[in-house]
Structures are given as structure tokens and as C-alpha cells.
């Protein structure tokens, strides 16, 4: 049976690849690629506060490293982060419960140890950070329906001053009143999934002003018991622009609530994946997050010079209840940044100074519901994270084909924690440099290659510094995680309709953060690994539009290979648990007239350990292949509809896992089940 399944999986993948390649040979010269972009008469304005696709693409091409530029609207269903970021090389999204919960975003293994995901990449909203000053963030407060573009810098080679992590940065660029007058959307699906959005926008070219307001709602009963989630968002932005000046203000409010069903053992996942363990029924783990945010950016242009000023403030309430602990937090974050860019002949110079600060009030209480010990105080903490950043860089256009980039950042980071009503404090500070060098070779008009050597530095977030095992709280003294990354790669077009993207990287990391868990899968501590670790991998993608006599084939094929290992210490040569070595995704859509339809595949062809000791015979995350199907209809009158069917075989598999130090029993809870067979549909109207 295993051989039959493996043969079927390989047959599916080889058939998809063969169809694509043979189609190119037959039809490559008959049509050009379909590129969904908007007209752009200001391509030279690479620093626009609301850039077009072409402007952002031109900016990414100046980066000597791997990047992605994504148009979420091309995916009609936008309920989760995976809907927007699927089929992208180098980006792995692991949905824990399938709703608007704490999805795990992985780029090159950065932050994969944190649970919930709370560091490892820098998240930006329209060019300004939405992470707190300690690096913590709430990823599910992002609304993909209000996102026009997603610009991704994979790895440590990026120039934003706050971005010092191994994983890089993601910038979520919002719709504005200049993009469309409005949108109405309704979605419905299996397991009580329901979503709606209405948005209104307008602009006056005469006065140079525009505005947009978006309201959205999501609800999901959940595939598993105790996995209901709900999100309400209000987002707006207002802009003014003239020939040499641009200003934009963003306002948002998010109310996010979801239940946490917890992980299952490998045997339980196979036999009853919708179930939960008794402790979940007793302790009612869940998370409620409310976040309000205001941000403003201004940009002045003087010939080849640009000055930009940004400021933001956000307030977050986070009630996070685990099976052992109530973690009640209130945070206020304020930040500002000032950037200057100029071009002098063949040289481009850039410089930025920035500052941000988070004041955190956190209470830890014992979770022993229905007992006298419930909500017994474990610790109350006042914490402050403050950072001062400086970044300078230059690009030298050596000739038409070659470009050299030199950048360095200096950061002064502070993480202070005081225990309220008790004696105890932990004050830490670091000053570090993060230099990087990169080269770009534009071999042809359509193909570019790059190489870089970059450094990363990541101070711990308060979620790592303040922890609890359910009986007492503790403050962990942690050094910053340091890394050096070497990367080579390129992207471009081989022939018409065959676009490629390949990156190879190796990162050597010192003091990597390792999270420890109890047998129920609850995080209970963090430490710096005593020896070095190595993250290396391959990120590859093919995509394009293949014309046929009737209709076209639109395809994406990605392979992300992740080889993360310990280089000494107690787990020497072992794999770092958490991410499968191979993730292959593909979708193929046949487009004819206003219709498009076709299959998609998510395939992990290798088993993965769930613990750093690699006790694969006790428990493991098994390989899987999940097949789906999609149908879209696009009307010429501004409305569209879609229908998706996922996990057609109703396979029991794990979409994510915790990363234990060592599993010792088949009953240890380590795996998060993926959703069974499900159908979702929706209708969208643009007016």
C-alpha cells in the first residue's frame, strides 16, 4: 500500500511537470504571459507610500537576495494567511487549527521554535513595523482582504533598520482610495466557516486626496472540538499627494478570539483527529487579542533626493490562556523612523535612523479551573523594550550588468523586566552591528543572479524572557541569537511562459533559542543552545502562463528544502525539529473564457522528527500528500465567484508540530491535525 501511494504521488507530480514542459515546447511562441498589474506612469517613484506592482517590483530587483512579490487578490479565498502566501518558494505556512488563529510562518527556520509564533521575521504594514519593540507580534491581526500587495525579503539581506532577524521581512501593502471604489465579499464553507467584507474608497485627482474604509468579519466553528475562531477588523487610510509631497495615515482596530484545542499524539491523530485531550476540556485554553493602531508617513522628493518620516503607535490587549497558565498582557508601542535616499551618478546612498519602545504589563496566574487554586498569582511583571537603530548603505551601478550593495546597521537594544510586589529584576542590553554585502548580475534583460553575505542579530522577546511551567514564573537570562548567512540565487524567464526562481543559502547560528515543552505540548521554558546550529536549504519555484489553442494553463510549482541541524552539543548532527525537510506545492489552473479550474497539491515526501533527539521510532510527523481542486469564475461586470475543495481524500495528517527536546512516550502530545475534506465558496463584487 505504501508503495502504491508513493507511486501515485510521484505520478501526479511528474504528470504536472510534463504537462507544463511539453506545453511550452508546443505553444511558447503563440502568446505572451498574462501579468495582472495596473498602469504605472510613475515607475521612477520607487519610494511611493502606496506603490504600484511595477514600482515595488523595481525596488525588489535592487536587492541582492531572494524576494517575493504577491498579489493576494489573485486568490479569491482570503480567509487565512496561507490563502495569500501559498505556492511561494521559501515561505512555509503551517495552520494550527484552520481558522483565524496563530498560524506559524516560517522562512529559513527563523522563529520556528517560538510557540505561539512571536518572532523570527519583521512584519510591516505599509512600510512601518507592526511588531512590538521586543520583536513580538500577533500574526492573525493581519487582514489579507485589505492587502493589495505583499512584498517579501527572504533572509537576513534586507535594509530596513528594524529588520535584524534571520528570516527577513514581510511588508503588507494596503488598498487605498485610489485603487478601487469598493468591494463586497461573502464566503461560506465547511465546519461553519463564514466571512464577509465591505470596503469603500474614493479619491479626488483635483485635490490629490483619497480615502478608504474596510470592515470585515470571520467566523469558524472549527474542524476539531474546541477550535472556534472569530475576528472583526476595521481598517482605514487617508492620503494626500502632490508633485513632490505625499502623506498617508492608517487607522485600524482588530478583535480576535480563538479556542486552542492543543496537539495530539501520533496514534490519536490517526484514529480521531477532531478530538481533544481531557485537559483541554478542563482548562479551556484560548486567546483573545484586541489591537488598535495609528500610523502616519510623509515623503518629500527633491530631484534625486527623498526624505521620509514615519510614526506609529499601537495598543494591544492579549489574554492568552494555556492549559497551565493565564498570561494576561497589555502593551503600548510607539515608534518613529527618518530615512534619506539620494542618487549621485552611478551611486545610490541611503540612511535611516529609528526608535521604538514597548511598555508591557504582564500577569501570570495559575490555570486550575474548578479548583480553589484557580487564578493563584504566579507573577506580575513590568517590562520595557527599547531600541535605537541606525542604518547606512550604498549601491554602486558598476555598469549596465553589475551592481554592488554595501549596508550596515547598528542597534542599541534594551530588555528590562521588573517583578511587581516582589524582589526580582532582569535588565539586559546589547549593542551590535549587522553588516551585509551583496552583488547583482543582470545577465540578460530577463534574468538576474545575486550573491550576498549577511549577518543577523535577534534579542529575545518577552515571550521568551518571561515563562512559566504552571507552578511558578521565571525570568530567563538569554543572550541574543546571532547568525551569518551566505546566499546565492537568481530569477528570471527561460522562455515565454516559464519563469524561474532559485535561492541556495547556508546560515551558521550561535545561541539559537530552543523552546522546551511539557508532555501536553505547552511551552514551559527557553534557553540558548550551547553549540552552533546550521540552517541551510534550497528555495525553488517555476510559474507561468502556457497558451493553448483554446484557453491557457496557469501554473505554480515550488520546492522548499530545509536542512536544519545541530553542530555540536547534546543533539550533535540531529535535525532541528519543527519543519519538514521537503515541502512541495503546486497548482494548475486551466483558463478558458471567464472560467478557470484545476487541481492543487501540498506534498511533504519525507518524515520529520517532532523532537530534537530525533526519536523517530517513538513519534514522528509522517509524510503526506494532500490534493485539492479549485474553480473560479470572473465576470466582465466586476463580480467573481469561487469554489474550492481541499483534502479530497480526507487524509489524516499533521500540518504542524511542537518541537520537544525528546519524546519518550507514544502518548506525548506533539502534532496538530490538518483539516479533513472541506469545501468553501464565495462571491466577490468590485464596484
Keywords:
single chain, globular, 36 strands, disordered N terminus, mainly beta, Maltoporin, Chain A, five-stranded mixed sheet, 687 residues, 8% helix, 22-stranded antiparallel barrel
Question: What topology emerges from the helices and strands here?
Answer:
Layout: H1 2-27, H2 53-60, E1 67-70, H3 81-85, E2 92-94, E3 104-106, E4 122-125, E5 128-129, E6 147-154, E7 168-174, E8 182-189, E9 193-204, E10 209-220, E11 229-241, E12 245-259, H4 266-271, H5 278-283, E13 286-302, E14 305-321, E15 325-344, E16 347-366, E17 377-397, E18 402-419, E19 425-433, E20 436-441, E21 447-458, H6 462-465, E22 466-468, E23 473-475, E24 481-495, E25 498-510, E26 513-517, E27 523-528, E28 532-547, E29 552-567, E30 582-592, E31 595-604, E32 624-634, E33 639-646, E34 654-657, E35 671-673, E36 678-686
Describe this entry's structure for a reader.
The protein is mostly beta strands and 687 residues long. It has a single domain, classed as Maltoporin, Chain A, CATH 2.40.170.20. It has a 22-stranded antiparallel barrel. Strands 1-6-7-4-5 form a 5-stranded mixed β-sheet, covered by helices on one side. It has a two-stranded antiparallel ribbon with strand order 2-3. Strand 14 and strand 15 (325-344) form a beta hairpin. The termini are far apart. Residues 1-41 have low confidence and may be disordered.
